[in-house]
Amino acid sequence: MRISIEMTDSERPVIAILGAGAVGLSLAGKLAGAARVYVLCRPAHADAIRERGLLMAGIWGDRTVEGIACIAGPEDLPPSVDYIFITAKGTGTAAICEQFAGVMREATVVSLQNGIGNEEVISRYAGSVIGGTVTTNFSVEGPAQVRVKSESGPMMLGVWSGGDAAAGLDRLIGIVRAAGIPVERSPDIRAGKWAKSLLNITVNPLCALFSVPVGATADDRLRGVIAHLVHETFAVMAAEGVRVPWATPEAYLAHLFGVQIPDFAAVYPSMYYDIKMGRKTEIDLLNGYVAALGERHGIPTPYNRCIADLIRFRESAGPAHPTDEALS
Ligand SMILES: NC(=O)C1=CN([C@@H]2O[C@H](COP(=O)(O)OP(=O)(O)OC[C@H]3O[C@@H](n4cnc5c(N)ncnc54)[C@H](OP(=O)(O)O)[C@@H]3O)[C@@H](O)[C@H]2O)C=CC1
Ligand SMILES: CC(C)(CO)C(=O)C(=O)O
C-alpha cells in the first residue's frame, strides 16, 4: 500500500517528533495519516525518506508513507507546532530539550520514553507536559525502514504538568486515535510510567546481557532474579507513594509471566539494540534509578544495583563482537 499525505492541508495539526528511531519513525508513519508531521532525523533516515518515503511493516500496517518532513533542527519547524513528541532515548532528553528550548516553551510536549525521569527534565523546558507509555515492540530494519512486531496494550497518555496539558490531552488522544493507534487516557501517568518500567526493569537488561529475545527470560533460572527485581521495585515504589495497577509483586509477576513475556516472546527489547550498536543504554532511568531511590529511602536493592552494574560494564565493552552469531 502506498500512502500519500497532502501537506498543504492547513487544518491538520502540526506534530514534531524529536528522535527518529524505532519508535519515532513508526509513530511518524501512523500520525502522518492525521497530522502534518515533522521528524528530527539523522541524515541516513532523512535521505531515504526524501528519496522513497518511510517503509513500514508489521502490526501497524505495511505501507510506504510519503509526505513526512525531515528536519535537522528547530529552525526547520513551522512557526506554530501543536505537539512535540520526544522519542529519543532517555540518555538524549536533556540535549534535545536544550536544542529545542525556544520551541518547547510555548508547546505541549509528550514523552513516550521508557524509564523514570524524562518528564521531570522536559517539564523544566516545556509549557505543558503529557507523559506517555507505549507497550509495543518497534525496530529499525534499515534507513527509514521500520517494523512494528508486537503489542501488549494501548498507548497511555496522561497529564504531567502545565496549565494547557489537560485540554491538549483530549485533543491529542483524538488525533492519535484517528491515526489508528490504540490509545487510552491515563488517570495517573506518574504511576503509569512506573507500571511500564516494571517490564523494562525485568526483561530489557537480561535480554541485553545475554543476547536473547524476551521469551527466554521465562527460563526457570532467571525467574528468581526477576522476582527479586520486582520485589525491590515494589518496595521503592511504596516508599515513593506510587500505586501501580497490581497490588502486590506477585500480582505483577503473574501478569509479566502470563501476559507480557508471552506477548513479546519472539522480539528483542530496545536495550538489546543499544548494546548491539555500542550505544549507552537507559539503565540509569531503570534499574539504576530504582537502586538510587532505594539508597535514598534506606531500602536494600542488591539485584537492581547488580544488574545496573553489569549493564554499565557491558556498555563499556563496546559494540557486540562481530562474530557473535546471535547478534549478526
Ligand atoms: N524500541 C521499542 O520497541 C520501544 C522503545 N521505547 C522507548 O522509546 C524511546 C526511543 O526508543 P527507540 O526508538 O527504540 O530508540 P532509537 O535509538 O531507535 O531511536 C532514537 C533516535 O533518536 C535519534 N536522536 C537522538 N538524539 C537526537 C538528536 N539530538 N538529533 C537527531 N536525532 C537524535 C537517535 O540517533 P542516534 O542513535 O544517532 O543518536 C536515534 O535514531 C526510548 O526511551 C525507549 O526505551 C518504548 C517502547 C518500545
Ligand atoms: C515493551 C518493550 C519490551 C517492547 O520492545 C519495550 O518497552 C522496549 O523494547 O524497551
- Distinct ligands, ions and cofactors found in the model: NADPH dihydro-nicotinamide-adenine-dinucleotide phosphate, ketopantoate
Count of distinct structural domains: 2
Name the average pLDDT: 94
CATH architecture of the largest domain: 3-Layer(aba) Sandwich
Task: Tell me the name of the CATH class of the largest domain.
Answer: Alpha Beta
Query: What is the H level of CATH, i.e. the homologous superfamily of the largest domain?
Result: NAD(P)-binding Rossmann-like Domain
Which regions are unreliable across 5 or more consecutive residues at pLDDT < 50?
A: 2-7, 323-328
The separation of the N and C termini measures 30 Å
Gross morphology: globular
> Any idea what the radius of gyration is?
19 Å
Q: β content, as a range?
A: 15-25%
CATH fold assignment of the largest domain: Rossmann fold
| Major sheet summary line | 8 strands, mixed
